[in-house]
Structure formats: structure tokens, C-alpha cells
């Protein structure tokens, strides 16, 4: 694929040839599927009947267009839809925004702000969003159905891909994880690493897949496969540790469990976005790449070890990859020093190493805030003027570029979607100025659309809120999660043979209720 400034339309054959590239990443065999009537659901668009089958009339024209025909392959349907989309709709597809919450910040609320969302879906044509709602499953399912209803009413009825940060653990950090309300709670990934059991990770991920899909979530912004080589780094607990082979093995199991198998994304699967490519865990002094003072990582000549940690997940055909924030200092690729920019802007790391050498064909989704300017609060936060969420920028190495130039450089490097933004204006301006080829735009749009067809969202993006309660409330699943949490505890030091404890020993409990202590067999005094 040529990445130039040439413009021109695509032939249908050419679109099919390109869109079949990500097939490896989502595990389809060939470009055909058996004609078996799927379950359809519609809120505003008609249902068509043709040849004894039913189809959703998503464009509302009364005719069965190819992208509405589930008898065709996902690749054929993607190619047809791509030809029907306007430039504005294509640009909106390259945004991965946040579902706005009513009376909340950064999407954290009790309900979505559907009026604000309507502007993003119908005005800016965004079709991918992260959810930051943490609600009981029945309520979250209802809220996500409302999102899909807005999307169905749009011109082409393109369903929304809803993503989430991890929401099956105990730690909650805004911007990195979500509350596990209603879901099973498992150890952080570092706890799974202590068990060294890929089967347990795979089993957990299968349960997580069922819980996510039951409430209308389609993409997991996980697992975090960074090698935690700096013990002072605050995100260490979200990784599988510092062993490349163990991280590779457990990462593969995670992807297989969430996506529905070892051969890529299954129709009932959840897309995984493995992160952060690559070298994020080598943070000097434990600084973090979200901050100006943490904008450098130091993988040096050990970059290959950080790459090795991703191999298992990539071999399991993870649907997406998220580049890291910090600039990898002292690293080289193919005998050349790597440009000192954030990996989301590195053509060497994305087009060269990830796609070219390792053969990745799925979505490359940038992490959040990589196109935003770094203001004074970002560069020099003080007690009087601390850095706020809206001040966070991670445009490391490209601070001197304009926002429009950052979009162009990101696409040239190999990005398909820009995370955390719905600012379509710079990309539209770049296209108008001839700085981005239509061909390059279409390639990324096709990569984003294809999994929506694979997961059946064009047939039925809705979920049954009552069924969500049953899918997320399985007692055996909760018991296994609790057992896994117990098994993941690691005794670091056993002074004076304090463990195992004896019944005659008095123990002090902090943050544990009396009822919980009694249930554990302790006598409360």
C-alpha cells in the first residue's frame, strides 16, 4: 500500500484486496459464510424481507444493499459500505471518543448525555466510544442500548463499537480502569502472573467476554503487556511482570479467552487491544508517560525483550494494538536509531516492526491525548495550578507540530484511530489540503468497520438487560474469582514462622468486617 498524497477512488476489487488483510487479525477463513438467518433487532429502521430471509434496512432506502446483506462476507460488506460513506463519515470513523455522561466529567456519570452524544454520532459521525459508566448490569445494558438506538437512526445506521478499560479487578483508577460493579473480581494481572497458569487466565477472560457482551461492550482496551522493568513504576500491578516469555504466554491466553478462540475474533467475542507498544514499562525512576517529566522511556538495547512480550498475543491474532506514550530513548530498529517521538508517531515501530515484520493486520488505536497541546499546567504544574485531566497531553516529540500536522504524521506512521478525541476538523482540513491520500483514509476506515460486521453488530447491536443480570451474576464464577484471588497471594517474607497461623494466635484485622471474619472461621473478640 502506497502512502502518498495521491488521490483517487477505489475499485471494489481493490477495497476487497485491502480489507482482507485484517482477516488474519480477526480469524476469518475465506470471504464467505453460510446463509443462516441471524436474530435481528431494530428500533427505528425497517426490516426487509427477501428470498425468505429478513434484513435490516439500515440506509432506509427500501432496497437490500450489499452491506445490509448478512449472507455476504464481512469483507464484501465492508467494501460496499466504504463506497457509500461520505468523507465526513469516514473521518468520524477514525475517532475513538468518550461516551459523554450527564452531570459528570470524562464520561463518569450515572447516565449518558444522549443529547451530547447525538451531536457526536450524527454531527461528527463518530462510531467508536469508550464507556466510563460503572453501573449495575441491567442499567448499563439499557444505557448502551440507548447509544445503539441513536446510531441506528443515523444515515447509514452504522453501529457503535463500545470499549472499556479493565473492569474485572479491585483497583479503580480513572483513565486506566473501571469499577467492577456487577462483574466478577479477579486479581490484577500481576496476580495472575504469580500463578503462572495460562488456563486460569483464559478461563477468566472467557467469563469477562460473556460479561462484557451481555451489557453491550465490544472492545477491551487490554491486556497491558508492558514489561515492568522499573519496580517504582505505578502501573506495574496492571502488567504480567518483567518476564517476556511469561507475559507472552499469559497475553496469548487473555486474547484467546476474550476474543473467543486462538484464531482471532469470533462472532461472540470481544476485541482485545494489546498495549502499550512498545517499551512503556522501562520508565526511569518510575515516572509515567502521562506526564511531561515522564515523556521518556529507556528500553535501550533491550527493546527486543519488550517486543517479545507481545508475540503471544499477536500470534493469537489480537484485534487491536495501542501504542505507548513515552519516547523510546536509545532504541534502534533495522540498524537505524528510532525517531525520538511517541510510538504513536513512529513509522518504524508501527509500519516497520509491527505491521511489516510481525504481520499485524488489525486496528492500531492511539492512546488518549496524543494530539493535544501541552500547556503550562502540563509542562510545569504547581500547587496553585496543578495539572487537570483536560491539561494532559502526550504529544511527546511532536510538540512543535500543529494539531493538524500531528494527525497527518500519526496516519503516516500507521495509526488507524485517534483515542480520546472527536475533533474531526484537523483531519478534514488535511484531506482538503491533499496532505492525506483518500486511499490511506479508506484503509483505516475499512480496518475499523470490519470487526463490527464480524461481531454481528449490523444485525443486532442491542442486548437483553434482563439476560445481562444472569450473565454477570453466576455464583460459580464469583467463587472461582475469589479462589483465584486467594491463590495469587505471595508470601514475601515469613519472619518468626508467623505463617501458617494457628487458631490460638490473636490477629488484628484492618478494613475487614466482623461478619467477614466470622465467615473465615475467626472468633471475633
From TrEMBL:
One of its GO terms (molecular function) is beta-glucosidase activity. Residues 105-449 form the Glycoside hydrolase family 3 N-terminal domain. PROSITE patterns: PROKAR_LIPOPROTEIN. It catalyses: Hydrolysis of terminal, non-reducing beta-D-glucosyl residues with release of beta-D-glucose. InterPro entries: Cellulose_Degrad_GH3, GH, Glyco_hydro_3_N, Glyco_hydro_3_N_sf. One of its GO terms (biological process) is glucan catabolic process. The keyword Transcription regulation does not apply. Signal peptide: none annotated. Keywords: Glycosidase, Hydrolase, Signal. Its EC number is 3.2.1.21. Belongs to the glycosyl hydrolase 3 family. This is beta-glucosidase. The lineage of its organism: unclassified sequences, environmental samples.
Amino acid at each position: 500500500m502506497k502512502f502518498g498524497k495521491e488521490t483517487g477512488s477505489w475499485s471494489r476489487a481493490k477495497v476487497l484486496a485491502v480489507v482482507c488483510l485484517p482477516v488474519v487479525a480477526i480469524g476469518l477463513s475465506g470471504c464467505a459464510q453460510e446463509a443462516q438467518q441471524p436474530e435481528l433487532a431494530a428500533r427505528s429502521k425497517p426490516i426487509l424481507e427477501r428470498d425468505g430471509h429478513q434484513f435490516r434496512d439500515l440506509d432506509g432506502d427500501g432496497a437490500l444493499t450489499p452491506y445490509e446483506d448478512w449472507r455476504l462476507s464481512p469483507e464484501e460488506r465492508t467494501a460496499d459500505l466504504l463506497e457509500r460513506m461520505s468523507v465526513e463519515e469516514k473521518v468520524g470513523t477514525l475517532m475513538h471518543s468518550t461516551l459523554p455522561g450527564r452531570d459528570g466529567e470524562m464520561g463518569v456519570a450515572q447516565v449518558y448525555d444522549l443529547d451530547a452524544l447525538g451531536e457526536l454520532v450524527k454531527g461528527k459521525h463518530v462510531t467508536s466510544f469508550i464507556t466510563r459508566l460503572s453501573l449495575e448490569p441491567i442499567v448499563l445494558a439499557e444505557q448502551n442500548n440507548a447509544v445503539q438506538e441513536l446510531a441506528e437512526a443515523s444515515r447509514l445506521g452504522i453501529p457503535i463499537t463500545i470499549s472499556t478499560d479493565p473492569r474485572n479487578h479491585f483497583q479503580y483508577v480513572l483513565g486506566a480502569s473501571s469499577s467492577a460493579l456487577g462483574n466478577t473480581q479477579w486479581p490484577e494481572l500481576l496476580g495472575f502472573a504469580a500463578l503462572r497458569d495460562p488456563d486460569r487466565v483464559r478461563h477468566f477472560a472467557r467469563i469477562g467476554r460473556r460479561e462484557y457482551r451481555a451489557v453491550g461492550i465490544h472492545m477491551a482496551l487490554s491486556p497491558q503487556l508492558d514489561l515492568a522493568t522499573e519496580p517504582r513504576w505505578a502501573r506495574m500491578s496492571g502488567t504480567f511482570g518483567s518476564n517476556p516469555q511469561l507475559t507472552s504466554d499469559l497475553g496469548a491466553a487473555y486474547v484467546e479467552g476474550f476474543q473467543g478462540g486462538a484464531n482471532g475474533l469470533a462472532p461472540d467475542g470481544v476485541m482485545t487491544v494489546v498495549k502499550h507498544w512498545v517499551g512503556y514499562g522501562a520508565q526511569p525512576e518510575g515516572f509515567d508517560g502521562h506526564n511531561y517529566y515522564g515523556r521518556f522511556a529507556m528500553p535501550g538495547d533491550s527493546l527486543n525483550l519488550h517486543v517479545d512480550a507481545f508475540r503471544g498475543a499477536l500470534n493469537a491474532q489480537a484485534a487491536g494494538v495501542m501504542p505507548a506514550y513515552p519516547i523510546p530513548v536509545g532504541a534502534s530498529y533495522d540498524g537505524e536509531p528510532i525517531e525520538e517521538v511517541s510510538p504513536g508517531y513512529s513509522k518504524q515501530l508501527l509500519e516497520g516492526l509491527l505491521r511489516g515484520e510481525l504481520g499485524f493486520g488489525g486496528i492500531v488505536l492511539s492512546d488518549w491525548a496524543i494530539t493535544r497541546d501541552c500547556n503550562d499546567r502540563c509542562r510545569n504544574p504547581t500547587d496553585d495550578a496543578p495539572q487537570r485531566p483536560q491539561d494532559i497531553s502526550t504529544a511527546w516529540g511532536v510538540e512543535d507540530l500543529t494539531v493538524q500536522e500531528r494527525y497527518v504524521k500519526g496516519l503516516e506512521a500507521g495509526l488507524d484511530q485517534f483515542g480520546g478525541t472527536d475533533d474531526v476538523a484537523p483531519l478534514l482540513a488535511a484531506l482538503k489540503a491533499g496532505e492525506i491520500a483518500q486511499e490511506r483514509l479508506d484503509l483505516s476506515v475499512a480496518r475499523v468497520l470490519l470487526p463490527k460486521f464480524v461481531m454481528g453488530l449490523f444485525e443486532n447491536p442491542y442486548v437483553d438487560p434482563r439476560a445481562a443480570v444472569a450473565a454477570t451474576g453466576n455464583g460459580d464464577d464469583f467463587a472461582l474469582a475469589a479462589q483465584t484471588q486467594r491463590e495469587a497471594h505471595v508470601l514475601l517474607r515469613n519472619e518468626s514462622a508467623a505463617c501458617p497461623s494457628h487458631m490460638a494466635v490473636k490477629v488484628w484485622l484492618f478494613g475487614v468486617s466482623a461478619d467477614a471474619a466470622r465467615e473465615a472461621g475467626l472468633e471475633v473478640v
